[in-house]
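Q: Could you fold this chain for me?
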Amino acid sequence: MLFRGSLFGVSMKAEGIDHVELRVSHYELSVRFYNRILLPLGFKKVHIKGETVTCYVKGRSSLGIRPVRSEKASEISPTPTREQGSIT
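A: Sure. Below is the predicted structure, expressed as structure tokens.
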């Protein structure tokens, strides 16, 4: 992505977004969703040892997916119920 413009008379050039992190309530479902969107666009999937996170990196852009923070692990649902829908 390349964007050229000016802000307050200062010239800018953007070549990516570094970095965005999303906290999701359905981690595994979200990873499957972003795999289907970002991998065909040339993003590489990266894991960080010892952490529950999936990162997608391409050039200077990166997107991280992590489960929501919760006081109780039981409040985080790894996969949605049938009523919540699914991605196949």
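A (continued): The chain is about 15% helix and 35% strand.
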